[in-house]
Amino acid sequence: MSDIQGLINKLNEFRDERNWRQYHNPKDLAISISIEAAELLEDFQWISNEEALKENEENIREEIADVLIYSLMLCSDLGLNVKKIVEEKIVKNGKKYPVGK
Q: Mind listing the pLDDT tens digit for each residue in 4-60?
């Protein structure tokens, strides 16, 4: 089992133990990803990268984790292979943005 699939299994177990799956439909998971990403942006708003990391490192880590958690749950619910879709996107971006461009 891959590390990613192991994380997904832990997330699904955590969610199922609390009966939260009923609230985690694709639309609401996508909304949650956006909300958590906005919360991550708040940690950097109006200050330099250095200040943000010094003042908000713990919260930055937590918000990144939230974005990843909702993203992994969404992939699981949609039956998407995380490794495969990321690798496909890297190939697509490589064609769109070749090294010499």
A: 999 999 999 999 999 999 999 999 999 999 999 999 999 999 999 999 999 999 999
Does domain 3-96 sit in CATH 1.10.287.1080? yes
Q: Using an 8 Å Cβ cutoff, are 24 and 73 in contact?
A: yes
The pTM of the full predicted model, rounded to 2 decimals, is 0.91
Dihedral over Cα of 67, 68, 74, 80: its sign: positive
* b/e sequence 20-29, b meaning 16+ C-beta within 10 Å: eeeebeeeeb
Q: How many Cβ atoms sit within 10 Å of the Cβ of residue 60?
A: 17
> Which residues fall within 8 angstroms of residue 19, CB to CB, at 6 or more apart?
none
